[in-house]
Amino acid sequence: MATQIDLNKAWSETTAGTGSGATATHAAASGVSHVVTHISGHSDKDATLQLKDGSTVIGEWSLSPPFSFLHFDDDAAGTKVLLRAGDTLINSIDIHNVTAADAFLLLFDAADTGDVNLVANGGSATARNYVIPATANATVGRSFSVPLFFTLGVVYASVTATDGETGAAQDLSIGYSTAKHSASETSQSGLWACTPGNAVNAVISSSTSDCQVNIAGFSI
Known about the structure:
Blueprint: E1 10-17, E2 22-26, E3 34-43, E4 47-53, E5 56-63, E6 68-76, E7 81-85, E8 88-97, E9 103-109, E10 130-134, E11 139-150, E12 153-159, E13 170-177, E14 185-193, E15 200-204, E16 211-219
Antiparallel strand pairs: 1-16, 2-15, 3-14, 3-16, 4-5, 4-15, 6-13, 7-12, 8-11, 8-13, 9-10, 9-12
């Protein structure tokens, strides 16, 4: 005999958490099997989202949000500086040119300072991926609603000309993130039939100050 689904037995559970994760539970009922059709959650730190049939884990997903940083350099000049190797998103740049002449901040998509040639030096100068000019004693601020994405890493230098290597003293701050996309949330749909008489739980393992988990399904 085919089992008919009573849509009046559909349910959804949501729990918000703060500093120690969160658990959303649909309670056990004698002789009743819960079928999970959807699970979702988010967290503000590295965590796992687990789906549990009673105490048995039947599904697990990783949550790994991007981390944002602000880098300060109060004496950027001709020396090449590695901001970070690997995928990097530049969200903002603020510059104060402390010289009495024009200055240029050069950004390169590179994993190491040794991969960057400011001038030809018998070979080829490395292509500039982004340049920010600043006039004498000027302050320049850039904020990127669509961040600048560097795949290899970010190397920067402050110089007096875009095609030169003579250093130009500038104070700067760079806001950046370490991942292309936020993976701090996930949403999964399917059919997970759980053991009759068991509760079902959706669990966010950890958080710093904000997380939420949802589980939905029906009972038969």
